[in-house]
Amino acid sequence: MSAVIIDGFKIASDVRHLVAEKTAALVKSGVYPCLAVVLVGENPASVSYVTGKEKALAEVGMKDRSIRLPESTTETELLKIIEELNEDSSVHGILVQLPLPKHIDENKVIMAIKPEKDVDGFHPINVGNLVIGRKSFLPCTPHGIIVLLKIMGIKTDGAHAVVVGRSNIVGKPVSLLLARRETNATVTICHTGTKDLASITRQADILVAAVGKPKVITADMVKAGAAVIDVGVNRIPDDTKKSGFSLVGDVDFENVKEIASYITPVPKGVGPMTIAMLMQNVLEAATQWQS
What we know:
Helix content is 41%, strand content 16%. By secondary structure, it is of the alpha/beta class. It folds into 2 domains: 30-114, Leucine Dehydrogenase, chain A, domain 1 (Rossmann fold, 3-Layer(aba) Sandwich), CATH 3.40.50; 140-271, Rossmann fold (3-Layer(aba) Sandwich), CATH 3.40.50. The chain has a 6-stranded parallel β-sheet with strand order 1-12-9-8-6-7. Strands 2, 3, 4 and 5 form a 4-stranded parallel β-sheet that branches. The mean pLDDT is 95.
């Protein structure tokens, strides 16, 4: 029997609808949630992501303070813009779209954003709060994964979760969230140094693939009945598409869906949840400002 395909698009739409209702209530009280999205350069994927965020802001009724800068923008100029946004009380959240051009230090930029406006959850203070279990802005993609598991009724308590990937954006934070007391999974993190990867992934009740390589997780690497969460978004050549490419995940979807109990598709799986959780973080930032 094929896996239940998790409709991340529908679940994200429900989250955004709830955020829109709360945003409308906040606006009535005199607070207009506002996100500043800063894009440097014209990386096609980044432009697409930023456009998606702008559409989501309009949909939930938030203010959009997008700032698009040329590739030639210096690190000093970018840091100056962030400083101005930090001091602007009408801006509740700041997001600098990554990756940045090579001449700009990403770590320096992340550090420059005030933690209370860091709706990406990347600032070391927010990361530290995540580690010790204090309230903070949670990174959007990992948080979205946890929400998907919860809404789909996928049991995490006592489950063995295997996360393939150790990035600061997905792998590490989702591992921490899965291991939290309220989620209560036992977590194994795999990466490029892992020997015999398949022998570990086959133990997973919940398998999270965040590798960034197309179809690297194959059916023989998945335990029957596992819940498979595919974070990857990879472009592969496809002459049948007008764009010349197709989007595929890190999981061999067609074959793995015959083994798993639940699986997220690519696209319309984890991706829409990332933007939905970002909207929720902006709402929280504006609510904190009100209080």
